[in-house]
Amino acid sequence: MNVCSAKWSQHDNVGGKMARKTGSHGDITGPKVQAAALRLIARHGFAAVSMRQIAREVGLQAGALYRYTPDKQTLLFDLMRGHMDALLVAREGAAMAGTPLIRLDEFVRFHIRFHLERPDAVFVSYMELRNLTPENFATLEALRRVYEDQLEVILRFGVVAGVFDVVDTKISTLAIIAMLTGLTTWYREDGRLPLADIERIYTGLVHGAVGVK
Question: DNA-binding region(s): which residue ranges (predicted)?
Answer without folding.
Answer: 50-69
